[in-house]
Write a structure and sequence with these properties.
Elements (H helix, E strand, L loop, with lengths): L2 H14 L7 H19 L25 E8 L17 E3 L3 E10 L7 E7 L1 H9 L11 E4 L1 E2 L2 E2 L5 E6 L5 E8 L8 E4 L2 E4 L11 H14 L6 H14 L1
Parallel strand pairs: 4-5
Antiparallel strand pairs: 1-9, 2-8, 3-4, 3-9, 5-8, 6-7, 10-11
Helix pairs in contact: 2-4
């Protein structure tokens, strides 16, 4: 479904329900907000949060496949600006600004990179128990990490940062979900006519089922409560008429 079709349908219902005019920019903003809500709902760990680095493959659905970024490789002892993700002065792993959710750090354990293991990410309550464990030497065998604050410094909201143990070089690949691109209905005004510009527009990147849910969420936020069958019927009728 293109952003043109999405806007046309939302505008049609706004007019039908006498709810006033919304500019393309306003509709884009609402769609982006609701796609982020959809993203978070798909990764909800049951407690209103997202279990970062904790076998999220068991949680997410195929709806999130378009946003999966996998296989970027680097070493934690690489402190140069050439590092694709970047590291802090103590080897903290800093993920890119578009990282929406960490899936896993994967450690290579052979020279060819054909064998490896997932690095467990601990929460604030678990990190103390692990560090105080009499089996702490086992981290050399089974590395782990944590995020939130590094050396008492709160992590900036524009990035994800993790500290990995042991404090030695680790050859890693990183798997994460990026943030969905913001939808954009681009247009130019010629005289008094608004002309849609597909070349400068951005469609929603989701599959059909997730796109439908996002549109329904957006409509609900505008005061229009619609069931998915009605949405499907509209676009089926539109397809048949074309």
């Amino acid at each position: 479904m293109t952003i043109f079709d999405t806007h046309r349908y939302i505008s049609f219902l706004l007019d039908k329900h006498s709810l006033g005019y919304k500019s393309p920019e306003e509709i884009d903003l609402i769609l982006h907000r609701e796609q982020i809500n959809e993203f978070r709902a798909l990764l909800d760990d049951g407690r209103g949060g997202m279990a970062k680095g904790r076998k999220v493959e068991q949680v997410y659905t195929d709806d999130l496949n378009p946003f999966r970024v996998a296989g970027t490789t680097y070493n934690t002892n690489d402190y140069t600006t050439d590092n694709p993700f970047g590291t802090g002065p103590s080897g903290d792993v800093v993920l890119p600004p578009d990282c929406m959710h960490l899936i896993t750090f994967y450690q290579k354990i052979d020279a060819k990179g054909t064998q490896g293991r997932r690095i467990e990410i601990l929460n604030d309550g678990e990190i103390g128990d692990r560090m105080d464990s009499e089996l702490i030497d086992s981290i050399a065998i089974t590395p782990f990490g944590y995020g939130g604050q590094i050396n008492g410094v709160t992590v900036a909201k524009t990035s994800e940062r993790y500290k990995l143990f042991p404090n030695e070089p680790l050859a890693l690949t990183v798997h994460y979900f990026r943030e969905p691109l913001k939808p954009k209905y681009a247009y130019v005004i010629v005289g008094r006519e608004v002309i849609f510009d597909q070349s400068q527009s951005q469609d929603l990147e989701w599959n059909e089922g997730a796109t439908n849910r996002i549109i329904i969420r957006a409509l609900a936020s505008l005061g229009i409560h619609l069931q998915e069958p009605s949405l499907v019927q509209y676009f089926d009728a539109k397809t048949q008429s074309e």
